[in-house]
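Comment thread on ticket #2218

A.B. wrote:
> Attaching the input chain for the structure job we discussed in standup.
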Amino acid sequence: MFQDLTKRLDRTLKKLAGQEKLTEDNVKEALREVRMALLEADVNYGVAKKLVAAIREKALGAEVLGSLSPAQQVVKIVNDELTALLGGKAAGLNLEPGKGKHKDMATVMVMGLQGSGKTTFCGKLAYRLKKEGRSPMLVAGDIYRPAAIDQLHVIGDQIGVPVHSDRERRNAAQIVKLAQRRARDNKCDVLIVDTAGRLHIDDVLMNELETIEQTVPMDEKLLVLDAMTGHEAVNIAVTFAERLDFDGAVLTKLDGDARGGAALSVLEVTGRPIKLVGVGEKMDDLEVFHPDRMAGRILGMGDVLSLIEQAEQKMDLDEAEHLATRFADGHFTLEDFQAQIKQMKKMGPLKGILRMLPGMGGDMLDKAKVDDDQFVKVEAIINSMTVAERRQPDIINGSRRKRIARGSGTTVSQVNKLLKQYRDMRRMMRQINAAGGLQEFGKKVLGSR
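C.D. wrote:
> Ran it. Output below, let me know if you need it in another format.
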């Protein structure tokens, strides 16, 4: 996400590096590039114009702070303005007991056009809330598409969340009303309603959504937007805001949109914040939208906080600690190496992980030539080894290497490369242990320069 915008901004801001001071000419030139980058990223024209004007005013009126260079000063100004444009801080869901219209249960209505990812998002939200200790129930409120009902039941079974549906009743509002009663009987505390969508906005769709809310008042109305539709997503949001006054937006397929302009435009154009974003196909690929962190990603500053949160949610921390201990003790085998790869794969594509690290924006990822298929090859090689070979790689001679290569569908050269990487890692571990630990090893390395 934001890949194209990040590259353009990275190149533009680097042009300011080396300048002794900010002048009207160099700021004007840089902002011309920033404006073009925003427009090419599908940002609303009015939003791009307002953002650039705010940056220009602060850049030309600002004094360089402390030891910051002019380029760094502009980056800070752009970062601050992007953060403000995106909402300043994360906007949470109104699901706390007692705060909504129903003291015993929060109600959420999920709206959007067909193909925006509503049904999948409902499942992701239910899965997230269940992991947080809530007891959600899903409601199949789409009375027109049997496939949507089937999809919601499949998702509900997958994540262990009850689903209420009624294929005979042709009144969505009454289905939701009955679901509310059933949810109370089952002591559920969050009701998530998946509503019908259309290929376009029409009065039938809007009237039905209005009727549902009149029958069962909602604590939270979320509009699901497909980030890949760019300007059209913002236009849809404007129309829904005029008719239904939704509380917040959800951007799906953000991982597949290299432009990301919709994310930068929704709040400014509609006055409604983006609350959640879908960043993958798995049930746990749903993130809270943090404006400051997103601005950092756009500017190539990384997003370490989100990376840590993902690690805590997706990785087996006990296993990770066990592997770290074996690494520190010098007992790291190829079995441990394989376990480490499996932990990494839980975090998602490697490019996505690297993108959250500071300095990996712009063209850096392209230069890194990251290939997730390498993980598959490494695992295939290790799986083709015997238990003894994994635990004692030193016994792997020429004939064993040929056998392992044949069994894994790789070459002897690739097997040799993996074994060399393992030996290098083991050598480094021994040097660290001999130095008295990682901290002392670091001092020793720095002192030898």
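A.B. wrote:
> Thanks. Noting for the ticket: Residues 117 and 237 are 15 Å apart (CA to CA).
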